[in-house]
Amino acid sequence: MTRTNLFSKIQIFALAVMANFAVVLVKAQEKASDLKVDVDVNKGNDAMGGDWMSNPLVWVVGALVLIVIIALVARGGGNK
């Protein structure tokens, strides 16, 4: 058996072991839906208003700042 053939067989074996491990992890998560878990998603208001990230103005200003930074970096200083 050549050296490359041995490495390819080891790689196939390692992939098979990882695939089986992933299947075991997925099967372990299957019974979690039977649990009665109460999750409270209302965190209330914090110091910044709580939902400031869902404000479209924040996203527009952030995108404009990002575009300006990219333009300044792409310009390269302009002193050439």
List keywords for this structure.
80 residues, mainly alpha, membrane, transmembrane helix, transmembrane
Q: In summary, what is this structure?
A:
By secondary structure, this protein is an all-alpha fold. 57% of the residues lie in helices and 0% in strands.
Task: Describe what you observe in this structure.
By secondary structure, the chain is mainly α. The protein has a domain of 30 residues. Helix content is 57%, strand content 0%. It is flat, with a radius of gyration of 26 Å. The termini are far apart.
Mean of residue pLDDT values:
80
Q: State the end-to-end distance.
A: 62 Å
Radius of gyration: 26 Å
Unreliable spans are none
Total E-strand runs: 0
Class by SSE composition: mainly alpha
Give the proportion of residues in helices.
55-70%
Quaternary structure: single chain
Main beta-sheet annotation: none
Portion in beta strands? under 5%
Counted by DSSP, the helix tally is: 2
> H/E order of the elements?
HH
Task: Name the overall outline.
Answer: flat
Transmembrane segments: 52-74
Keywords: Membrane, Transmembrane, Transmembrane helix
Summarize the SSE layout with pairings.
Layout: H1 3-28, H2 56-75
